[in-house]
């Protein structure tokens, strides 16, 4: 069953990817041949990344929008559970398989990129039983993820489709989806045409998607068949206008479909019905996007990385060629002298790592404390917010008896309070929290920046003493350290990171951390999201308390405000921890990159000398053969460089 006929874009992409992999393999050989094993490891990792290329498309949206039905329609069969009740309980990955197969992963496995030992095979028709909400409702969840192998053309071309739990139905399940957002390369947000782009959807999109991949979102408006026929154009125009008021999105990314019709059409082998459903338009648009964007994200950065490594290796070859002209004994003495300083640099690296660790731990604690304080402040303000809401509310709060009425009012009240809390915390994020992080980064820069500069100077001294003994200490730009850093940084640059381009600096590091702030924040606040807060409070007995109000002689406003405040106080420590953990994780990632960069800068120098010494020893008399091998490598590098440039150019022009 394949929906996409025109695969030329994919084929071109695959062709380039293959070429890039070959280039990287050659490069790895050359780098090893030039005596740079550490750099060669980096190249090997790069190869793995390009070879192991999957593009993950997350299908997200509120419950019942038709996410699972959309994927089923693409598969041509009802594979994923879909029904009118909240249904999907876990992330379900659809990926390529020659034959249809299902797997389940236990809750504690987090692996999403392929099978591992934890996978439990399950018949496809039995999947529904295991991964619907009902099946998981009693007791703790057993399964954390499902995987479906399916002969879908799109998947064969390296795309994983991920079905996700609805966003507005349960905090835990929404969290599963939202945490996955930044792992996805693209997001398909499914709406219902009957109420597309509701306020809660807008909030979710702004808080969780806008930060990451503005370019990589599809707006899929489903259920068009449920709109009154005479009204369809009108409804579509309204939805388009509402979405475009906030998002700059063209017709290729804003598509109306009837997923149910598409599924039925494919099940019945009725191409006209499929075409009429609008789904093929979406599938073609997705394919086009995957062809162009995927290349941009998955081909261009690694190709640029190849060029960085080429430049580094060419320098290394020049250095080694120089060393090979030297007297072995003299070089051995030089190396002996450099050993101590090199060892000290290794220790410096460890020291820098430790002081970054300490700084980071302090930052984490400060963020956590600030978050906790702010949450408690919000709790303290709940009561007065409640009364403001009451005054500005059209509905009178105290004159009713009917329970439904009371519930409705309590719900409105909760919603309004939830909004106030979110606003209050959002102001904090934009103001005080951002300031704190900025100050911490500057402080870190002051503390470590100097040590890094010193490291750089010491390394350069060693380099000069070994490679340029005649005193022609021509400083290379960029320095060895900066080369090391950009090599390490470039390798780890991921889509969504602000570090693309891989020029190291603490300011860039900050840029990389700040977008994460919104995610950290969104997750921490989820409990106060639209629709969720009231459900949580109702579950915690708010309604029962309200019913007893007559006896308690307390107003609804006070009761609801108290309940919200209590929830805030109860959850403040955990929410504060979540927020600070998220930010910390992002900092820690950057720090690892710096650490790798320092290590490879030292290794680069060390390995060149050891290589030259080894060659001089091996050949006793003459190193001519090694030299001519190195020169051949140098020529190969020129060629690799040109081909990498051409790979980049093909996408820059497309
Ligand atoms: N009429 C009509 N019904 C649809 C359409 N798409 C989905 N449905 C139905 O709506 C119900 C919900 O669809 P699902 O695909 O389960 O929705 P979901 O977004 O995956 O929901 P959760 O997993 O609960 O978050 C199912 O009964 C579908 O058959 C559509 O385009 N038109
Ligand atoms: Mg579903």
UniProtKB/TrEMBL annotation:
The chain crosses the membrane at residues 517-543. Residues 263-595 form the BDLP-like helical domain. Residues 57-211 form the Dynamin N-terminal domain. Keywords: Coiled coil, GTP-binding, Hydrolase, Membrane, Nucleotide-binding, Transmembrane, Transmembrane helix. It is found in: Membrane. One of its GO terms (cellular component) is membrane. GO terms for biological process: mitochondrial fusion. It comes from the Bacteria. It comes from Sphaerisporangium rubeum. GO terms for molecular function: GTP binding; GTPase activity. Residues 602-636 form a coiled coil. This is tRNA U34 5-carboxymethylaminomethyl modifying GTPase MnmE/TrmE.
């Amino acid at each position: 069953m394949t929906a996409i006929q025109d695969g030329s874009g994919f084929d071109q992409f695959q062709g380039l990817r293959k070429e890039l992999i070959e280039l990287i393999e050659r490069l790895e050989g050359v780098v090893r041949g030039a005596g740079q094993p550490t750099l060669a490891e980096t190249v090997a990792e790069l190869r793995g990344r390009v070879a192991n290329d999957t593009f993950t498309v997350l299908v997200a949206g509120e419950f019942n929008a038709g996410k699972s039905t959309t994927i089923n329609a693409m598969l041509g069969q009802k594979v994923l559970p879909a029904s009118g009740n909240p249904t999907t309980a876990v992330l379900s990955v659809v990926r390529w398989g020659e034959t249809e197969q299902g797997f389940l992963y236990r809750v504690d496995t987090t692996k999403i990129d392929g099978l591992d030992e934890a996978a439990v095979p399950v018949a496809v028709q039995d999947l529904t039983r295991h991964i619907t909400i009902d099946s998981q409702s009693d007791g703790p969840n057993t399964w954390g993820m499902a995987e479906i192998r399916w002969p879908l053309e799109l998947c064969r071309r390296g795309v994983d489709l991920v079905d996700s739990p609805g966003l507005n139905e349960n905090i835990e399940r929404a969290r599963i989806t939202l945490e996955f957002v930044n792992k996805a390369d693209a997001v398909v947000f499914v709406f219902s045409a009957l109420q597309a782009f509701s306020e809660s959807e807008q909030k979710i999109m702004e808080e969780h998607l806008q930060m990451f991949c503005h370019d990589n979102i599809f707006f899929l408006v489903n259920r068009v068949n449920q709109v009154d026929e005479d009204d369809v154009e009108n409804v579509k125009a309204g939805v388009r206008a509402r979405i475009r008021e906030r998002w700059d999105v063209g017709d290729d990314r804003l598509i109306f479909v009837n997923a149910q019709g598409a599924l039925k059409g494919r099940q019945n082998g009725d191409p006209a019905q499929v075409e009429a459903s609008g789904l093929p338009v979406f599938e073609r648009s997705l394919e086009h996007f995957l062809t162009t964007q995927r290349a941009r994200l998955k081909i261009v950065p690694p190709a640029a990385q190849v060029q960085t490594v080429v430049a580094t290796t060419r320098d290394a070859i020049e250095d080694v060629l120089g060393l090979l002209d030297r007297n072995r004994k003299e070089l051995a003495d030089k190396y002996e002298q450099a050993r101590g300083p090199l060892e000290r640099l290794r220790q410096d690296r460890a020291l820098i790592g430790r002081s970054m660790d300490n700084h980071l731990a302090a930052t984490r604690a400060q963020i956590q404390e600030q978050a906790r304080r702010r949450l408690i402040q919000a709790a303290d303000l709940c009561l007065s917010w409640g009364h403001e809401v009451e005054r500005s509310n059209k509905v009178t709060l105290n004159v009713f008896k009917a329970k439904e009425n009371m519930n409705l009012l309590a719900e409105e009240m909760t919603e309004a309070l939830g909004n106030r809390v979110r606003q209050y915390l959002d102001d904090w994020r934009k103001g005080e929290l951002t300031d704190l992080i900025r100050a911490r980064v500057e402080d870190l820069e002051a503390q470590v920046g100097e040590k890094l500069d010193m490291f750089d100077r010491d390394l350069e001294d060693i380099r000069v003493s070994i490679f340029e003994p005649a005193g022609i200490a021509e400083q290379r730009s960029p320095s060895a350290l900066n080369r090391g850093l950009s090599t390490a940084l470039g390798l780890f640059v991921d889509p969504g990171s602000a570090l693309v381009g891989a020029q190291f600096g603490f300011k860039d590091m900050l840029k990389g951390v700040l977008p994460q702030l919104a995610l950290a924040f969104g997750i921490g606040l989820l409990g106060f999201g639209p629709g969720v807060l009231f459900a949580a409070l109702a579950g915690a007995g708010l309604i029962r308390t309200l019913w007893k109000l007559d006896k308690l002689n307390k107003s609804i406003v006070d009761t609801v405000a108290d309940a919200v405040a209590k929830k805030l106080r109860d959850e403040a420590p955990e929410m504060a921890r979540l927020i600070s953990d998220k930010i910390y994780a992002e900092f820690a990632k950057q720090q690892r990159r710096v650490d790798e960069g320092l290590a490879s800068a030292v290794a680069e120098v060390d390995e060149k000398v050891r290589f030259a010494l080894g060659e001089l020893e091996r050949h006793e008399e003459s190193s001519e053969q090694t030299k001519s091998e190195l020169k051949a490598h140098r020529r190969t590098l020129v060629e690799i460089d040109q081909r990498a440039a051409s790979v980049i150019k093909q996408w820059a022009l497309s």
